[in-house]
Write a structure and sequence with these properties.
about 650 residues, 10 helices, 40 strands, binds CU-O-CU linkage, binds copper (II) ion
Length: about 650
Amino acid sequence: MPADTATRPRRLKRITIELLIIVLLLGATCYWLLFIRATNGELTFENKLLIPHQLFGTVVDGRRQFHLTVAEGSREFFPGKQTPTAGVNGPFLGPTVRLRRGEDVDLIVQNNLDEITTMHWHGMHVPARMDGTPHQKIEPGESWTASFPVDQQAAPLWYHPHPHGSTGRHVYRGVAGLMWIDDDNSNALDLPKTYGVDDIPIVLQDRLFDDDGAFRFARNQGAVYGNTMLINGTYNPFLQVESRRIRFRLLNGSNARIYYIGFDDNREFHQIATDGGFLETPLQTNRVILAPGERAEILVDFSDGAEVVLKSYPEAGFLRTITSFFWGIGTGNLQLLKIVPRPTNRASHALPERLNTISRIDPSLAAKTRPMVLAGPRQGGRGGRGGRLQNIQQRITRNLAALQGERGQGGRGGRGGRGGPPINGKTMDMARIDEVVRLGDIEIWEVHNRGGQPHPFHLHPVQFQILDRNGQPSTSADLGWKDTVLVPPGDLVRIIMAFDRYADPQVPYMYHCHILEHEDNGMMGQFLVVEEPEQLSLITGKTTVVTFITGVQCGHCYEHARLFDEVLRENDINLVVITPESDPDQERVAALSSSLISDTSGKWAGWFGMAHTGPAHGTVLLDATGEVVWKSTAPEPYMDVHHLVNRAKNLPGR
Ligand code: C2O
Ligand code: CU
Ligand code: CU
């Protein structure tokens, strides 16, 4: 009996120790699987990194012309396996288009695919008609020319198709390329500039392959991720460089994956440029985060001669890394490119002290602040501002919420991707104008991610500055010019920009999430940049209804105008009737007591965001300050004039 009572606690102790060891081992294995082992740990870095050709174009009548032909092809990424692809002037990806500030260019895009495509110049400041959005369709066998002056600072831009609903598929097959602008500043700076030698383009793309070598375009959690990395379309790549300072111009050309880029020896390097141009001074760091669509230029010193692997780290956060692992997306721990330095006598470029001058846009000059609420309905409150989220407890809650949110969205994606995460509670509609921006205005957009996953928010025609994140003023790389900004779940990022060029009352620009499957699922909106129409003074100082008709010639339009004319006059509400006709029937016009404007330029329609592809009829109600308080666009004229009168009478300050 005494022996028995003595062994029991001993056995318990032994079991406890064994359990502890098992738990520790399991923990260590998980940690290794998640944070140490690269998803593509099998790479041997045997293929020479492909460098895209450069395209300098030819000058014809003072304009520099570039020919870009989009076509299907095939590429041997793996020995003996042909992968069906598509590309620009070649089977996969496209040439690096070199542009100079101050030149006028024509980009002639030939579509040799058997489906509609478009070509968008991502980051370029161009007129809306030249932007290559879903509205500038190129039919199979047809060509389209984008003409514009290159008038923005040196920057690493890119181009890719933008057909609504299938941008992801087009880019995934390989249609995309780099577009670099040079200017006097970039020419004068002492930076590595020998293309492919010490100035290296890097296009990062993850792909999923079938056994026969074909790309598999398969959604996981609502977007397309791959476990195989292609760098400039090279699988398993290495790059020989001279052992001195090398410049890399990185583009995340992936559909959905975010990279936390660094080197496997964790060496420090310098970031010198963001999406839209050079930073003011080189930024010393050992990581660059790149979401889809984003670019960065870095300078890396290889004078120690050591071989090193460019890689992506699993730094999206503990919970996200674990869930991504179990979803089969991978932890984001990926090897990208092995760099093999060779001895050289050539001196290294010094690190420039100064790269650029970036004058900050003054927020007090903003004419308007627009909310951009991602992946959630528009709500009154503005949580998450003022640095309150710095609190650790809230951060954990946020991560948990993120986890649940992602699961929900994943479910939707899995059932065929209906709907899609919206912006301001709306899903993209090509026939609807979501926002109208006045030419010359400076605006602040408050991009608030109320959804469960990070969204890279991109807006088209201008480069912007990041004012703050959750109330914290921008630092480091956030001080650079951007056209795409990563907004983590729960965050509120305020951006500011000047819409200083190119009004068009009919053709909209886009803003959207640059996770291409989110965009294709409708996480996109349209905005016009417009000039003030003539005679706008007709509507100021008084409650006004502006109604758009297809013409006084049209029976129901005229009936509608007559009814509005009579009822609104009785109720002392101002009415302005807008017709696109240049020469409306004078007899019919005379029968109306209201002002009738021939809007042949479309400026009135644009000012009030009437869609150009959509319904021709629209009615807006404006308060005495000229603000739109109610709007309807429909295929038929809005006839409920009494409803409008009631609304007008209830306006405050009337
Ligand atoms: Cu890079 Cu609207 O796109
Ligand atoms: Cu763009
Ligand atoms: Cu998104």
